[in-house]
Amino acid sequence: MSVLADRAGISLETLSKIQKGHPGVGMGKYAAVIFGLGLGVEWMKLASIENDTMGRMLDDENMPKRVRDKKRST
User: Fold this and answer.
1) Furthest CA-CA distance within the chain
2) Whether the Cβ atoms of residue 12 and residue 1 lie closer than 8 Å to each other
3) What is the pTM of this model?
4) CA–CA separation, 7 and 32 (whole Å)
5) pLDDT at 11
6) Where are the domains of the chain?
7) What is the C-alpha separation between 11 and 15, in angstroms, rounded?
8) How far apart are CA 54 and CA 62, in angstroms?
9) What H or E segment, with its residue span, contains residue 14?
10) Would you say which domain of life the source belongs to (predicted)?
11) Nearest-CA neighbor of 12 among 26, 34, 33, 31?
């Protein structure tokens, strides 16, 4: 476990908290462990906007239906 903590740049205590699911551990520490395990590329693919079809659908719904230029005053 100390090798993983070193690779992730975190303490053994923080790694232990992550393993126990402690709510006080920041998301960045989880990401550091993921990269320390060598799973960073797969995680980035998972978090990619191209793979977030639901998020893109919700964004599309919130886009204005029609966009017009404002009339210029002459």
Assistant:
1) 73
2) yes
3) 0.63
4) 8
5) 97
6) 2-54
7) 6
8) 13
9) helix 12-20
10) Bacteria
11) 33
User: Residue 5: how many CB atoms within 10 A of its CB?
Assistant: 19
Task: Reduce the secondary structure of 19-71 to three states and give it as a string.
Answer: HHCCCCCCHHHHHHHHHHCCCHHHHHHHHCHHHCHHHHHHHHHHCCCCCCCCC
Buried b (16+ CB within 10 A) or exposed e, 27-61: eebeebbbbbeeeeeeeeeeeeeeeeeeeeeeeee
Other CB atoms within 10 Å distance of the CB of residue 67: 6
CA dist., res. 36 & res. 57, Å (int): 33
d(CA 3, CA 43): 20
Q: Whose structure tokens read 């204005």?
A: 64
Q: Which residue has the tokens 């978090």?
A: 47
